[in-house]
Write a structure and sequence with these properties.
Order of helices and strands: HHHHHEEHEHEHHEEEHHHEHHHHHHH
Largest sheet: 2 strands, antiparallel
CATH superfamily of the largest domain: Fumarase/aspartase (Central domain)
CATH architecture of the largest domain: Up-down Bundle
Strand order of the largest sheet: 1-2
Number of helices: 19
Number of domains: 3
CATH topology of the largest domain: Fumarase C, Chain A, domain 2
Shape: elongated
Structural class: mainly alpha
Length: 496
């Protein structure tokens, strides 16, 4: 058997590898820079506490790391010609303090440092996204309460369905957004767990207190299994999936609003600050913010799909995380920006309530209630009642009439045509069953469209949004205090 070859002398990386590989990773330096500095500082402090690093080496190394953390990422010498992000840092530190920089490698591979840095970055972005989600839910709830008696024809398949209110409609987007906010909190809890002390993958012989590393970095707990700590991807998938679900949910609202903002509907107008003028046609202002929402939804779906695709590799492969270092933070950041945009659109949306009422009254959205009335009043099975009302609606529409114009005589005539007998509704007062406002008021069951029910749901959703925002703020505060405490400890250890 031929013995394994010895490690060859270091040689410069090929240009093709620099362009296709290292440059791709270095492009993600902005996402990892702060987290890498914190992870390195915590590592040196633990080495120092365990007397594994000489004080004469720990002090200049800590000073250098603190300086790096204060340095803007674009001023730090990240250069793909020297390798990926970790290699660039290693080269720079060695150039500054020589072999003392080599203590950073004691008991820890590069992947552990970068895994910790990614989690440090993601917990910030996930918290930002959860916070702005709470803001969106609150904006939807506030507008829903304000429009609990703004009547409109609810639609399915872009066809008029039943009478409802704008408030009830808006709340249908607040509830799923609130659920996605909770999913983001769960993802944040999973992200804020420490991979520190995992060593190569089976644990470190040097760093004996993994809890200490976690506390220094502000992680809530340690990832139990060291190999899992190095290679797990399910938490990343869950975070991006929650973000994609959130944006896909209010994308439906954006799609509707784009239609409603058209001249043909004229239900709503976006505030001018969220539109863009045509450079050719003077009469046009396009609801550009909604295009941003729609396009970003497709982008997030693609990033989730891409993440799933690269994580399907065999275990203990770097390729399933190299491509996540930038893509996952960018996905969550884009979700944050577009969620904040949608919050602002909702908060400033101009509503044409008169037009909504005009379209509602012009249609036949009361047909279902009328069929139920005929069923109960005349003791006719619902299918027969359905056919009778359907025929009456068809006749009225052909005559240019509206739903509010239907009469008992028209129902009797339709019944005679459908069943061969009349219902005895001639002269009946149908005002309550034809008035959309009365029909909406009758939807007073739990979750219904009655104004008081909508106001109660809106108040409940505002409370949920504030609770979500408060929980996010508490998590942020804990992390911020831990990071500040870590930097203070490093400054004290470095002699100020």
């Amino acid at each position: 058997m031929t013995p394994p070859e010895t490690v060859p002398a270091r040689s410069a990386p090929a240009r093709e590898l620099i362009d296709a590989g290292f440059a791709f990773e270095v492009a993600d330096a902005a996402e990892l820079h702060h987290g890498l500095n914190l992870a390195d500082i915590a590592h040196v402090l633990v080495l120092r506490e365990q007397r594994l690093i000489p004080e004469a080496a720990a002090v200049p190394l800590l000073r250098l790391l603190l300086e790096a953390d204060r340095q803007p990422v674009d001023a730090f010498p990240y250069d793909p010609a020297h390798g990926e992000v970790y290699n660039c840092r290693e080269r720079h530190f060695a150039a500054q303090i020589g072999d003392d920089a080599g203590w950073l490698h004691a008991g820890r591979p590069r992947r552990e440092a970068v895994r910790a840095a990614l989690r440090i970055r993601l917990r910030q972005i996930a918290a930002d996204l959860a916070a702005v989600t709470a803001g969106l839910v609150e904006a939807l709830a506030q507008r829903a309460a304000a429009h609990a008696e703004t009547y409109l024809a609810d639609q399915t398949y872009l066809q008029q369905a039943q009478p409802s209110t704008l408030g009830h409609y808006l709340l249908s987007f607040a509830y799923p957004a609130a659920r996605d906010g909770r999913r983001l909190l769960a993802a944040l809890d999973d992200i804020n767990r420490s991979p520190g002390g995992a060593g190569c993958a089976n644990g470190s012989r040097l760093l004996l207190d993994r809890e200490r590393i976690a506390r220094l970095l502000g992680f809530d707990e340690v990832i139990e299994h060291t190999r899992d700590a190095m290679w797990q991807t399910d938490g990343l998938i869950a975070a991006v999936a929650a973000a994609a679900s959130l944006v896909a949910g209010f994308n439906k609202l954006a799609e509707d609003l784009e239609i409603w903002a058209s001249q043909e509907f004229d239900y709503v107008s976006l505030a001018p600050a969220y539109t863009r003028a045509s450079v050719l046609m003077p009469q046009k202002r396009n609801p550009y913010a909604l295009s941003v929402v729609r396009g970003s939804t497709g982008l997030l779906i693609g990033r989730l799909t891409g993440l799933l695709a690269v994580t399907k590799s065999p275990s203990a492969r770097s390729d399933n995380l190299i491509f996540a270092y930038g893509e996952v933070p960018r996905a969550l950041s884009q979700a944050h920006r577009v969620t904040d945009l949608m919050r602002a659109v909702v908060a400033t949306l101009e509503v044409n309530a008169d037009r909504m009422w005009e379209v509602l009254v012009a249609g036949f959205t009361q047909a279902t209630d009328l069929a139920e009335y005929v069923m109960q009043r005349c003791e006719v099975d619902y299918r027969s009642s359905y056919r009778i009302v359907g025929r009456a609606v068809q006749t009225a529409a052909h005559a240019g009439l509206r739903g509010v114009d239907l009469t008992g005589e028209m129902l009797d005539a339709a019944a005679h045509e459908e069943t061969g007998r009349r219902l005895g509704l001639a002269g009946a007062d149908l005002s309550d069953v034809l008035d959309p406002r009365q029909l909406v008021a009758g939807r007073a069951l739990q979750g219904g469209a009655a104004p008081d029910v909508v106001r109660a749901m809106a108040a409940s959703m505002q409370q949920d949004a504030r609770r979500l925002g408060s929980e996010v703020a508490q998590r942020r505060d804990c992390v911020d205090r831990a990071e500040q405490r870590l930097l203070r400890q490093a400054e004290e250890a470095a002699g100020g």
